Recover the amino acids of this structure.
């Protein structure tokens, strides 16, 4: 019987060039989405999925990520003494025992696959989760997809379980697109992957199933990364490594998110604005004020 999965890797080393100048002096993962920086949503999702050891892959000018997850016991004690329960609730991700945070740096942009390979010693012989630090899951329970994926991954003895979402066919060229074995998958039902194409030319995508920034891997992913050749830009791509797993005969599955489980990202201004607005509208504390303001503003548009 496999042990529970407790380790996660959060790649957060990208340069954020599509979000300049907002990201000139701060990581895109630290851009606010409502009341929290984007990466905090990711960490809270991992914690709710019982992933207690979290490795953040950072880079240059990313020290604020480490500062954000520094527990600062003196500050917590002062808030407790002051009875500031609201702020303490917002800082629950720092609670003692909630997680152990680890850090390593990707000193130059060598691709997502290279960043994940830096976690080889951290993962060891265990299975692990990879959750991109600039991609958020919106759902009644944002951790539900990961919990289900991890269980299915262990039950099936998978090498990889990859979250996918359906995207409009005309937008498939923007994503990593998976080919599947035979039939249209149902949400929450794993189906074997036969190939992945990264950003296929318009009109050539084999399906409309796009990778949704959440993965569960066995240690076999590191052997695949070792065998993955750099692309034309000299970068090691995770999609190429997953295709290596497929060619090695390892069991690799797609996990289709439910319609009410939506992936957001902060990779460019258009998607960041949408993410901020939707999360602000859904905020349990201030969402009603945002909704009121938008209704009033709509008359001016």
């Amino acid at each position: 019987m496999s042990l529970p999965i407790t380790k996660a890797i959060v790649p957060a080393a990208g340069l954020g060039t599509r979000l300049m100048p907002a990201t000139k002096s701060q990581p895109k993962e630290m851009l606010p989405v409502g009341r929290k920086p984007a990466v905090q949503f990711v960490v809270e999702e991992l914690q709710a999925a019982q992933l207690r050891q979290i490795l953040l892959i950072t880079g240059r000018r990313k020290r604020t990520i480490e500062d954000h997850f520094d527990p600062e016991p003196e500050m917590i004690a002062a808030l407790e003494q002051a009875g500031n329960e609201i702020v303490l609730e917002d800082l629950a991700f720092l609670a003692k025992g909630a997680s152990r945070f680890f850090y390593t740096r990707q000193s130059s942009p060598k691709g997502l696959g290279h960043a994940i390979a830096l976690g080889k010693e951290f993962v060891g012989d265990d299975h692990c989760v990879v959750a991109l630090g600039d991609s958020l899951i919106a759902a009644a329970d944002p951790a539900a997809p990961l919990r289900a994926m991890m269980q299915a991954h262990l039950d099936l003895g998978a090498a990889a379980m990859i979250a996918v979402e359906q995207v409009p066919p005309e937008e498939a060229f923007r994503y990593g697109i998976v080919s599947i074995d035979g039939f249209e998958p149902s949400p929450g039902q794993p189906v074997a992957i036969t190939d992945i194409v990264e950003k296929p030319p318009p009109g050539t995508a084999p399906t409309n199933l796009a990778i949704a920034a959440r993965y569960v891997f066995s240690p076999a992913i590191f052997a695949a990364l070792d065998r993955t050749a750099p692309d034309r830009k000299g970068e090691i791509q995770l999609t190429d490594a997953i295709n290596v797993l497929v060619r090695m005969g390892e069991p690799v599955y797609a996990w289709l998110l439910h319609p009410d489980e939506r992936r957001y990202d902060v990779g460019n201004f258009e998607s960041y604005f949408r993410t901020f607005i939707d999360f602000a509208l859904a905020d349990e504390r201030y969402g009603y004020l945002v909704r009121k303001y938008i209704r009033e503003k709509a008359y001016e548009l």
